Amino acid sequence: MAITIRAATPHDAADMAVLVDIAGHGLPAWLWGGAVKRGEAYSALEVGRSRALREEGAFSWRNARIAEIDTAVAGLLVGYREPDHPEDEDLDQIDPILRSLVQLEALASSTWYINVLAVYAEFRGRGVGSALIGEAERLAREANASGLSLIMQDDNGEALRVYQRHGFETAAARPYVPFAAGASAKNWLLMTKPLA
Prior knowledge:
By secondary structure, this protein is of the alpha+beta class. The chain has a single domain (3-194), classed as Gcn5-related N-acetyltransferase (GNAT) (Aminopeptidase, 3-Layer(aba) Sandwich). 34% of the residues lie in helices and 26% in strands. It has helices spanning 13-23, 27-37, 44-52, 96-106, 128-142, 157-165, and strands spanning 3-7, 64-69, 72-81, 112-119, 147-153, 169-175, 187-194. The chain has a 7-stranded mixed beta sheet, sandwiched between helices. The model has no long low-confidence stretch (mean pLDDT 95).
């Protein structure tokens, strides 16, 4: 079956919320759950859908590409070019669970940052992830980026093998602070790939 990749539209917001939560192993829903606890929403995924509908921001439909197989949404890529000079962040003001992510993203200046890459379970093993990585490389070249970058948990062996097969290498690591019980990750990894 052919894989097609297209620009996302606001109609993709619900799939985006689910797929970003898959990519983040539940961390996005945990973060969005704060709005539910405050009574601002009924569902964490509702909050994610609202975030995906924004016109601006990192997690916006405007920064997303959708992979489809036979018109069914199969996967998601969200990314953008990082600035040449990252903004200084006051790490003391950032939740310890997110601090390592902020530190690693700051090391990815000038790259095209893959914020989200996820594939629904029923479409895995069909080349969807590889097609989305290829799209990221195309967008990185268009953006005149120095390379590609992404951040992942060190306990995701399957994803690590896919990224390594596509030429990514570990550039840095920072401690993983669990947001829920039972986490097996020890570090967040910044993976980078130069553009040829």
